[in-house]
Design goal:
This protein has 9 helices and no strands. It starts with 8 loop residues before the first helix and ends with a helix. With 191 residues, it is mainly alpha-helical. It has a domain of 132 residues: Tetracycline Repressor, domain 2, CATH 1.10.357. Helix content is 73%, strand content 0%.
Length: 191
């Protein structure tokens, strides 16, 4: 009879996600994941598999939390319910700036990191990143549907998405706050 797990899966996956988010796939060793999870090697492997499987789970965890929160904002859920769509887009871009200025968070976006780090070489990662980014595109379209329609809506949402993900890459690369603010302010005229 198998012994029941004695750890909180959500907590372990969050810790693993944060290691990959901070260090990337290549910069993370299985020992780093063992240390972050607090589990023994056998337990971690039995529960989640090898490093590749853990990376895919980390991307799923990122989608379930960070991407979901961004989509909720864009789609006007929760506290954003009374905000106009273009204001929701600007609020999301402001959150990118705030991550750096308030929280000193320079990790960027795990999706962007994975898109550059592993997606070109790994079809599973490419699929995961593409699905998350497509769902973000839909959320941008939802936010901007109040003022745009058809091809103009898709083009404006794509541009807003590119600005958002571009800002996330800029954060990771250490871009100055002024440059992030300029990107956010430039989006206002687009919307």
């Amino acid at each position: 009879m198998a012994r029941p797990r004695k750890f909180e899966e959500e907590k372990v996956l969050n810790a693993i996600k944060n290691v990959f988010w901070q260090s990337g796939y290549e910069g993370t060793s299985y020992n780093d994941l063992i240390k972050a999870s607090g589990l023994h090697k056998g337990s971690l492997y039995a529960a989640f598999g090898d490093k590749h499987a853990l990376y895919l789970r980390a991307l799923q965890e990122y989608d379930a939390r960070e991407v979901r929160a961004a989509k909720d904002l864009l789609m006007g859920r929760g506290a954003a319910a009374d905000m106009p769509g273009n204001a929701r887009v600007i609020a999301l871009l402001q959150a990118v700036v705030d991550a750096v200025t308030i929280h000193d968070d320079r990790r960027g976006c795990l999706l962007c990191n994975a898109a550059m780090d592993q997606a070109p070489y790994d079809k599973d990662v490419e699929k995961s990143v593409a699905e998350s980014m497509a769902s973000m595109q839909e959320a941008f379209e939802s936010a901007l549907a109040e003022k745009h329609a058809g091809a103009a809506l898709r083009a404006t949402a794509s541009a807003a998405s590119a600005i958002y993900f571009g800002m996330r890459v800029m954060v990771k690369s250490g871009a100055p706050i002024a440059m992030l603010e300029q990107a956010k302010d430039g989006a206002k005229s687009l919307l």
